[in-house]
From TrEMBL:
Source organism of the structure: Eubacterium plexicaudatum ASF492
Ranges annotated as spanning the membrane: none
Keyword Repeat: no
InterPro entries linked: Calcineurin-like_PHP (IPR004843), CNP_phosphodiesterase-III (IPR050884), Metallo-depent_PP-like (IPR029052)
One Pfam family it belongs to: Metallophos
Domain of life of the native organism: Bacteria
Keywords: Hydrolase, Iron, Metal-binding
Protein's UniProt name: Calcineurin-like phosphoesterase domain-containing protein
UniProt record similarity statement: Belongs to the cyclic nucleotide phosphodiesterase class-III family.
MF-aspect GO terms: hydrolase activity; metal ion binding
């Protein structure tokens, strides 16, 4: 962390802000805290607000407000940063597959600390056993290299075996998820899965990470029932699955109050803004329909105090923030799609691979603040992954530890 005392009188040249830019170019991960004798110039004040919103500085105060900036500085120094890597749609296959090169390139370029990997579906391309074996090897290698010890995986429509009885449709995915759990030294109580009757409601999971002060509710939006219009592309989270997940969530929220709560499932919440006919089928098919029961999913998300919803499926990265005025706290819900992490399925709308790095701070009292999303992108015609412009995930208040 760098404590920068700026004289903000150079209103024309903005040398103080230029100094910040120089420091961030030389050392991108340096946390800059700005003090000034008097922030009396409104234009400078606006620019410092922009710098804080863009993540260039972590805060700014007038030196005269000793109690305020000392308290803030002590809190930031003592705070611990938590990092979550969000992947989706890797589509690993047995042949003609560059997943290893893509993952290796990402691991070489990515320099941040990751505490948790959340993968929102379509780990593989056809739900085959050999594909999941390959996925396990590649993802364990990635976790070893980036020192990721925690993970959550939810299934996508490509993780289902379509040429098998419905009751076995998710068996390869479940075996893969069990292996990744064991790698992370997470051992769930033995679960006897019932026969799948179309929707596989039992695949939802609620995981608690006490050291990260985070709860993840992973849902299954991939169905075994073929839709007459959308085939197997469509997704649905049934009312019964939401009831089950809500019941599990209520129990852990009672044990772990004021934790960050993240929901994750595969299918996109909103229809992507495609203005072209992707498959050349005219009006017979509209590709990548949104998940069914969006209204119920959003209602339950707000009722249960979710902070983030992480999705995939559309192969396009997106970020929306919603507030419901039906609830007193008016807590924002951030809905973020990770886009595509594969050379398969690149759309004309987004001709690059993408991933998201989400961070927040936990202070010594257990309070959570400063949520931030840092997107990464990679064009197949280029060598390196690029860090895109990040953005703050605003909250109406700090998640306090009472």
């Amino acid at each position: 962390m760098l404590l920068l005392d700026l004289e903000l009188k150079d209103k024309c040249d903005f040398n103080g802000l230029n100094a910040i830019d120089d420091i961030k170019r030389a050392s991108p991960h340096t946390k800059i805290f700005v003090l000034s004798g008097k922030i009396y110039d409104n234009l400078y004040h606006i620019k410092l607000q922009e710098y804080k919103r863009d993540g260039k500085i972590v805060g700014f105060f007038e030196t005269g407000n000793h109690e305020e900036w000392c308290s803030e500085l002590i809190q930031m120094i003592s705070a611990r940063k938590v990092g979550i890597l969000h992947f989706s749609d890797m589509h690993i296959s047995e042949e003609n597959d560059n997943s290893k090169q893509i993952l290796t390139g990402f691991a070489n370029d990515f320099k941040e600390k990751v505490d948790l990997l959340i993968f929102s579906g379509d780990v593989v391309n056809r739900g085959k056993h050999k594909e999941f074996i390959k996925a396990e090897e590649l993802l364990i290698d990635l976790c070893d290299r980036l020192k990721i010890r925690n993970n959550v995986f939810v299934p996508g429509n490509h993780d289902i075996m379509r040429d098998t009885p419905v009751r076995n449709a998710f068996s390869h995915f479940l075996h893969f998820r069990k292996s990744m759990d064991e790698y992370a030294e997470y051992y769930e109580e033995n679960v006897i899965y019932p026969d799948v009757e179309g929707y596989a409601d039992y695949l939802n999971v609620v995981r608690v990470f006490p050291g990260l002060r985070t709860i993840v509710c992973g849902l299954n939006s991939a169905t075994c029932i073929e839709d007459g219009k959308f085939g197997y592309d469509y997704g649905e989270i049934t009312a019964e699955q939401l009831r089950q997940a809500e019941e599990k969530l209520a129990k852990v929220k009672g044990q772990y109050p004021n934790f960050l709560i993240i929901g994750a499932f595969h299918h996109n919440m909103f229809e992507p803004p495609y203005y072209f006919d992707f498959y050349n089928k005219g009006d017979t098919m509209k590709w990548i329909p949104p998940v069914k029961k969006q209204g119920l999913i959003l209602k339950k998300s707000f009722e249960n105090g979710l902070d983030l919803l992480l999705t995939g499926h559309s192969h396009v990265s997106s970020s929306f923030t919603m507030v419901s005025h039906n609830y007193k706290d008016k807590k924002p819900l951030h809905i973020i799609s990770a886009g595509l992490f594969s050379e398969k399925g690149i759309t004309p709308l987004e001709t690059q691979l993408t991933a998201n790095y989400l961070t927040y701070q936990i202070d010594l009292s257990g309070n959570i603040s400063n949520m931030f999303c840092q997107p990464y992108s990679h064009k197949l015609t280029e060598v390196s992954w690029n860090k895109e412009k990040g953005y703050a995930l605003e909250s109406n208040k700090t998640i306090s530890h009472d």
